[in-house]
């Protein structure tokens, strides 16, 4: 029986034994003391103690009174809460409290006490834990389901538990919290939005970062209750995403963050939400689509996600956003692809086609990110990206935007270094990206300096890393060079040559700076026309080198980076030579590196040959030269030839510093000059000339026995001696010019060229491979080259030998290669000789003293080689012509030869010729801009000055025999337009008017080649008329004043005369100038041959000019007339058959130098003209209307 009695609503309150009455009359400490005993009593009771339950029922009701629930002492509140929790346990399933309001107050009171769980170090924490454990085990809160406003209690409970959980709690605390909350969710009738918000708010990134334990608690709770809570979650997202009711929850603005977190927790939580996202992907709002794409990118791309396979419709809809009209959406889609490729390689096939389209996206940022996406995945694992994806990156190395090109090039370089140099994924991966090295070096051919500089940087950092040890670095370079394709090798060689040239320029600049007068130069006043303007500017900047933000200093640093030989020094060359020796001995790792020993040796020699040009001082060691001597003794002709060339480039100090090498080298060079291959002989002679001081003696020891042993009956033994003799006579003309003259007269011309000792094979072929050409023809070709070299060495025509040689070469061209005309030589051999003769004339023309004596007839014969019947002759001749022109070695008139390429039946040849023209014209214009002194030589440099040469050349075309023949005129027009189209791409300095003026001025002269021959002059004027016709029809700017009066070459045209000019185009048939097209249009687009119109000139003899009337009037009418079909039509159209240009302009029709008044009545047909005083003519039509 308990002690301490009091009354509650007439019932006796019985306290446990030893517990006195608890009232507000006692102190808090006493209340706590007595409550602890009460707590102990209730803790020890169980549900089967019916007597005690009845005994203590009033006490249980008393503990729920306001005195206890509102008590300010937290210890009192805690003890009361523990008692109440036990009371719910003891009296379960029926609570002793019947009032709903009282129950609500009790559970809110208990919930508030649970906040004490936060401090695990509190002395009372165990009691708080007991309270939580009791509530969770009994599921006491489930009583609240009977209350109407139970949701308020649950929300408060959930918020409390999520707020108090922290990292100091053990797993038991978390489990009891989960049990408590999950029972409420799973045993209730549903989860309200407010209660759901109290869970979901812990998933938002901001809250997640503040309380990681609350996030983990919510995560586990959602996983445990997924079946029950999923419909509630679906309803929430349906309200916000589909119905557009963001007011249903304060978390509406975080829906996409919530979806991402819920998907990561358990995709089943979103079973009904995913179709809603598909709906959102098709929203009309770009920003909304962007948000959904960002979300789905995370869902599809997460590592363990199988959403793409589980929900194919949503995946396909998402892929469609790669083609979204909104740029940020496409950009986000592309960024996603990288994670997707890395986490889900099986989806690469789906992504490839969409990335292909985006790699050509008009937006630079998207193309850039496509590259980043592919490269990022490739660097993670090369197997993640297929060849097609790598191909997209390869294409972007030629993107129009520098940022994209740079990203593509750097990305490929990183892949190459990782998988080829470091071999991180084995041989298969290395083979997959082996093409990268070639592609990156090919980019050096691009015009942009940025591309070139980046290739240099990539080569130094990725292809052959400069920070490797010397032996490793050279091994890398050795096998890289051996495995490059021919174009990549050329690009790498060009890169080294450019760096070498830059080193040379910087060296000259430093030498200039060392001069004591440099600072004086910097302060000196400008001297107009002097060549020291640029020096003065540089010197001025050098004089102030310590400015903090001096861009000139930055340029100096940049130059040092480019010119520093970070790869090559004497030690590196020595290592390279040792590698090559190992390849020769068969002890190298050639096969393991994927290169055959022969290929490695040849490539190594070629590499050393290039480096001998760019880094000659690095070769100067006995060890290196000993290895090269070993190469000279090898049977491989190419290897020996390269070794000789290396000696030639680097051996300047051999004679003084390495006498042993010298004594070994001399007999080898003599042997190669006498009995080696033609290429070896050439290099041997040049090597002797370059590195020995007694070169005259050495060359004489070769020349004399060779000149005496020449025998035309054994042509196969002639080729090497002819090569050696030719180069000796060119290098030492003072010593050998006279002896060579007798060799030329008695043997070369008389015995070799003027005799056909063998009969060629009559197979009808126009060309044969080199190995099938007869030794006699090869000897004759070398004989022609010998003549040229001999003349180039002399550089004078005092003995008239050049005239004789030119006549001989011309005769060979006239006879089509069969100089003896005995018809014993085959067609393919004749082709070889024609090519040799034409090339010889072109080579002589590069020397000014010989260019002067080449007659127009000889020039024309040379030009016609480009129209040779043999394709290979045309091809090789055009290449030689272009090579000489682009180096500015040939006079400008030789560029006119390309006009004849319009006749070439092969489209590729015409396209090549056009590219050659573009390159040549561009180089000449750039040269004039960069060199102010070039203005004094405009006649030989300005591309437009090719027009008179072209006109004269076409006037003497053998195919142009009848000036009135329309078909022949059509060919002339095609040739003219072939050249003029490229020249008229830009109207620089009013060049159109300048070219027109030149053509007009030619009609005031006569043909200097045949000044008194009427037909020759008629043909010349006819070509001028066609040229004027073309210029007028293609340019509206040609009627402006010419910037200067053009100068015509006196070699081809006589001095201007005052003559009455007439039109030399056919009158009976029309001559059509086609409708203007873009000057950069198709190279070989066939031109219409119907309805050709002539260019009709006025007879204005008073001023002596030959300006056409229609060309003067076409410009003012430009805003009122237009070109339609065969006529220019304006406000009125006069439908008559007329000949010439027809302009309809308001009330007058201007046409080809004739003026016609608008008719009232006229019939179609011929209307006889009536002259008007002066130079104009007009007619008045009859009054009958036709």
Automatic annotation (TrEMBL):
Native source organism of the sequence: Crocodylus porosus
Taxonomic superkingdom: Eukaryota
Alphabetical UniProt keywords: Cell cycle, Cell division, Mitosis, Nucleus, Repeat
Pfam families: PDS5 (PF20168)
Subcellular location: Nucleus
Chain segments annotated as coiled-coil in the UniProt record: none
InterPro entries referenced in this protein's UniProt entry, alphabetically: ARM-like, ARM-type_fold, Pds5
Main location: nucleus
Keyword set includes Translocase: no
Ranges where the record places region Disordered: 1093-1112
Sequence ranges of Polar residues compositional bias: 1098-1112
GO biological process, one term: DNA repair
Example of a GO cellular component annotation carried by this entry: chromatin
Protein name according to UniProt: PDS5 cohesin associated factor A
């Amino acid at each position: 029986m308990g002690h301490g009695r009091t009354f509650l609503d007439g019932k006796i309150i019985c306290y446990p034994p030893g517990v006195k009455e608890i009232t507000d009359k006692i102190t808090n400490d006493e209340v706590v003391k007595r409550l602890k005993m009460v707590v102990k009593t209730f803790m020890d009771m169980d549900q089967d103690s019916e007597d005690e339950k009845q005994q203590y029922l009033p006490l249980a009701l008393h503990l729920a009174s306001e005195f206890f629930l509102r008590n300010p002492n937290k210890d009192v509140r805690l003890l009361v809460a523990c008692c109440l929790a036990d009371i719910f346990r003891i009296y379960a399933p029926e609570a002793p409290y019947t009032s709903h309001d009282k129950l609500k107050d009790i559970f809110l009171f208990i919930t508030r006490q649970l906040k004490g769980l936060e401090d695990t170090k509190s002395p009372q924490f165990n009691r708080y834990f007991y309270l939580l454990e009791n509530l969770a085990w009994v599921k006491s809160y489930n009583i609240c389901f009977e209350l109407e406003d139970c949701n308020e209690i649950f929300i408060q409970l959930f918020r409390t538990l999520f707020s108090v959980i922290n990292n100091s709690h053990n797993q038991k605390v978390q489990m009891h919290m989960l049990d408590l909350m999950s029972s409420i969710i799973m045993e209730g009738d549903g989860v309200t939005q407010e209660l759901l918000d109290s869970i979901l708010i812990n998933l938002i990134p901001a809250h997640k970062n503040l309380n990681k334990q609350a996030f983990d608690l919510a995560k586990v709770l959602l996983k445990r209750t997924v079946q029950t809570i999923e419909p509630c979650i679906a309803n929430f997202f349906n309200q916000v995403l589909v119905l557009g009711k963001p007011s249903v929850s304060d978390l509406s603005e975080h829906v996409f963050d919530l979806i991402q977190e819920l998907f990561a927790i358990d995709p089943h939580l979103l079973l009904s939400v995913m179709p809603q996202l598909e709906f959102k992907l098709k929203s009309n709002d770009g920003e909304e689509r962007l948000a959904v794409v960002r979300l789905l990118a995370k869902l599809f791309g997460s590592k363990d996600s199988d959403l793409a396979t589980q929900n194919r419709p949503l995946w396909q809809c998402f892929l469609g956003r790669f083609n979204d009209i909104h740029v940020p959406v496409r950009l986000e889609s592309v960024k996603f692809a990288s994670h997707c490729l890395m986490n889900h390689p099986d989806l690469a096939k789906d992504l490839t086609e969409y990335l292909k389209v985006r790699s050509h996206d008009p937006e630079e940022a998207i193309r850039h990110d496509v590259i980043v996406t592919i490269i990022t995945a490739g660097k993670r694992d090369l197997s993640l990206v297929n060849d097609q994806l790598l191909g997209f990156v390869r294409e972007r190395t030629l993107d129009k935007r520098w940022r994209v090109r740079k990203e593509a090039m750097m990305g490929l370089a990183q892949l190459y270094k990782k998988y080829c140099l470091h071999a991180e994924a084995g041989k298969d991966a290395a083979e997959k990206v082996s093409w990268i090295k070639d592609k990156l070096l090919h980019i050096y051919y691009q015009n942009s300096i940025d591309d070139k500089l980046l290739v240099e940087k990539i080569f130094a950092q990725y292809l052959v890393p400069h920070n490797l040890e010397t032996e490793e670095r050279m091994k890398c370079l050795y096998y890289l060079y051996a495995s490059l394709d021919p174009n990549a090798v050329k690009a790498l060689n060009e890169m080294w040559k450019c760096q070498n040239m830059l080193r040379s320029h910087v060296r000259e600049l430093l030498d200039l700076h060392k001069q004591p007068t440099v600072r004086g130069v910097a302060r000196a006043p400008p001297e107009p026309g002097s060549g020291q303007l640029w020096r003065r500017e540089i010197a001025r900047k050098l004089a102030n080198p310590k400015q903090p933000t001096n861009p000139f200093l930055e340029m100096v640093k940049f130059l040092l980076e480019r010119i520093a030989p970070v790869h090559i020094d004497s030690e590196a060359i020595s290592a390279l030579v040792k590698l090559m020796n190992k390849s020769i001995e068969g002890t190298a790792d050639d096969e393991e590196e994927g290169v055959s020993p022969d290929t490695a040796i040849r490539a190594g020699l070629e590499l050393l040959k290039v480096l001998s040009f760019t880094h000659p001082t690095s070769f100067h060691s006995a060890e290196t030269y000993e290895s090269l001597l070993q190469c000279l003794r090898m049977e491989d002709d190419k290897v020996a030839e390269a070794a000789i060339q290396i000696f030639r480039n680097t051996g300047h100090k051999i004679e003084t510093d390495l006498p042993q090498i010298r004594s070994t080298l001399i007999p080898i060079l003599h042997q190669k000059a006498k009995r080696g291959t033609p290429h070896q002989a050439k290099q041997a002679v040049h090597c002797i000339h370059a590195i020995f001081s007694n070169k005259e003696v050495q060359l004489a020891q070769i020349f004399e026995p060779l000149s005496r042993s020449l025998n035309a009956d054994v042509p196969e033994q002639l080729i090497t001696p002819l090569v050696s003799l030719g180069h000796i006579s060119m290098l030492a003309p003072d010593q050998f010019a006279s002896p060579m003259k007798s060799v030329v007269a008695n043997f070369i011309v008389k015995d070799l060229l003027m005799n056909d000792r063998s009969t060629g094979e009559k197979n009808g072929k126009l060309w044969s491979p080199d190995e099938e050409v007869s030794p006699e023809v090869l000897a004759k070709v070398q004989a022609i080259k010998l003549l040229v070299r001999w003349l180039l060495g002399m550089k004078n025509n005092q003995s008239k030998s050049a005239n004789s040689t030119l006549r001989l070469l011309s005769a060979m061209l006239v006879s089509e290669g069969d100089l003896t005309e005995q018809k014993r030589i085959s067609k393919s051999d004749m082709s070889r000789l024609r090519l040799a003769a034409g090339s010889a004339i072109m080579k002589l023309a590069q020397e000014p003293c010989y260019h002067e004596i080449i007659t127009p007839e000889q020039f024309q014969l040379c030009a016609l080689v480009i129209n040779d019947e043999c394709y290979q002759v045309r091809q090789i001749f055009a290449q030689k012509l272009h090579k000489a022109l682009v180096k500015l070695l040939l006079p400008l008139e030789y560029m006119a030869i390309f006009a004849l390429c319009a006749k070439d039946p092969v489209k590729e040849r015409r396209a090549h010729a056009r590219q050659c023209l573009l390159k040549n014209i561009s180089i000449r214009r750039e040269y004039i801009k960069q060199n102010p002194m070039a203005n004094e030589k405009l006649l030989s440099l300005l591309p437009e000055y090719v027009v008179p040469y072209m006109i004269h050349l076409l006037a003497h075309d053998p195919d142009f025999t009848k000036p009135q023949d329309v078909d022949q005129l059509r060919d002339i027009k095609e040739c003219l337009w072939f050249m003029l189209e490229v020249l008229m791409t830009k109207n620089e300095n009013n060049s159109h008017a300048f070219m027109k003026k030149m053509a007009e001025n030619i009609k005031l002269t006569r043909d200097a080649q045949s000044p008194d021959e009427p037909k020759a002059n008629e043909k010349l004027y006819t070509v001028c008329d066609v040229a004027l016709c073309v210029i007028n029809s293609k340019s509206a700017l040609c009627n402006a004043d010419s910037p200067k009066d053009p100068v015509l070459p006196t070699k081809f045209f006589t001095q201007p005369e005052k003559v009455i000019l007439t039109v030399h185009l056919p009158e009976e048939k029309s001559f059509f100038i086609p409708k203007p097209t873009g000057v950069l249009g198709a190279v070989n687009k066939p031109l219409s041959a119907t309805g050709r119109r002539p260019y009709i000139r006025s007879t204005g003899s008073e001023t002596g000019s030959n300006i056409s009337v229609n060309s003067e009037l076409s410009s003012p009418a430009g805003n009122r007339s237009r070109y339609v079909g065969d006529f220019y039509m304006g406000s009125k159209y006069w439908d008559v058959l007329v000949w010439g240009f027809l302009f309809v302009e308001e009330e007058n029709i201007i046409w080809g130098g004739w003026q016609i008044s608008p008719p009232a009545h006229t019939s179609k047909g011929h209307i006889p003209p009536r002259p008007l005083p002066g130079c104009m003519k007009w007619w008045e039509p009859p009054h009958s209307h036709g």
